[in-house]
Amino acid sequence: MPRIDPFSDAVSSAQTPCVGPDTSPPPRPAPTLRVTYSSLRTEGALGDDVLAAIVFGGKTHCPDDPRCLRIDLEPLAGAGLSEVWRGAGPARIGTAGPIRHVDDGQCLAGWIELEERRFGGLVEASEAAYRGLLQFHAQSPFSHLWRIWNFITDINEGEGDEERYKLFCLGRARAFAATHATSPGIGYPAASAVGKPKGARTLQVCWLAGRGPGETLENPRQVSAYHYPRKYGPAAPSFSRAMLTPHPMLLISGTASIAGHASVHPGDAVAQLEETLANLDGLLRQAHTRSGFGSARLGPESLVKVYLRNATDAAAIESRLRARLGQAVPFLILAADICRSELLLEIEVVQRSGEVLSA
Ligand code: 3EB
Asked: How far is the CA of 338 from the centre of ligand 1 (A)?
């Protein structure tokens, strides 16, 4: 199979800003995107500033509201907490074919769920989902894709190039390659891609986009995912390590125990946690020194979500993370499979505030 690297000629530097076809300057005042882990009360409506409320697992209450989305990953810590994204309000709700979206005039939350069998397989479903969302955003005022979450059933099933994560990557890369022809220079968003351990083969893709460009960041400790060598699959993963939005808010991609491009500490979840935290530190330092963002550390400004393969590791991971972050920092641990079978966990972070120190 030919290798697909749609941006090999377009993105010469990891710090290339994410620039889409809409070149108008970001509107003033700055958008007020916020995110919290909150308990959604059983009664009462969501506030009109809520863009999206993501409910995890089968037991947590999900209000009957089109802005709510259930993700079938069971919480192992932080049960009952939902991820609530708020904008400037009031939220406007819309659909475009299979895409559901909510915006506040500045930022947009969108999602799409596709049944794989209706597309003939995961490559095709993945390509369809990404073609759909990329085309939607090419015509939308929210032309800058900042952050994408991918939820894939049985992500480690299949051998070699047929492993389902690699099939997903191939479909995604094809869609980016096709769209690249019409939107040169669009940078890869930050992303997470994790496995749903049970349930129907429905590909769920959720995202955040904005009117203004973000700045992509790469991790000095890691090879950029879009430059991973061939042995990890026929198409390298299409994502950036982090996206600094104009708010400013740093959206850090799912980060795992990968040094360079190799998985390290196989079989040892605690060692993988330490390596992952070192990777997160590397990214936060990069955001601080290169872009003047934030305090360069995990702390009260951080919103932390752990995807954990084995529930038996939850207690050890929770206590070490609690010791590292302190009592005040909320975090979620969700039971999920990780894209490489030897990886036991993946952590994503939203670094919410932080001053911009340089202009
Ligand atoms: C990694 O660093 C771990 O394919 O969208 C993390 C975040 C990972 C996003 C994706 C994959 C993705 O390669 C896996």
From this structure: 9
Q: What is the pLDDT of residues 216-227, one digit of tens each?
A: 999 999 999 999
What pLDDT is stored for residue 24 in this prediction?
Answer: 57
Query: If you measure from the C-alpha of residue 29 to the centroid of ligand 1, how many angstroms do you get, rounded to a whole number?
Result: 33
Question: What DSSP assignment string belongs to 206-270?
Answer: EEEEESS--EEE--TTB--GGG--GGG-SB----BSEEEETTTEEEEEEE-SEEBTEE-STT-HH
Give residues (CB < 6 A) around ligand 1: 150, 191-193, 225, 237, 239, 253-254, 256, 258, 339, 346
Q: Which of 39-48, 51-60, 183-192, 243-252 has the lowest mean pLDDT?
A: 183-192
Going by pLDDT thresholds of 50, 70 and 90, the confidence category of residue 12 is very low
Give CA–CA dist 341/345, Å, rounded. 10
Closest atom of ligand 1 to 148 CA is 5
Give the closest residue (by CA) to ligand 1 atom 14: 339
- Atom 10 (ligand 1) nearest CA: 193
- Note every long-range contact of 280-285, with CB atoms under 8 Å and residues 24 or more positions apart, other chains counting: 280/252, 280/255, 280/347, 280/349, 282/219, 282/220, 282/221, 282/222, 283/217, 283/219, 283/241, 283/242, 283/252, 283/255, 284/250, 284/252, 284/351
Q: Where are the domains of the chain?
A: 13-248
Largest CA distance in the chain: 53
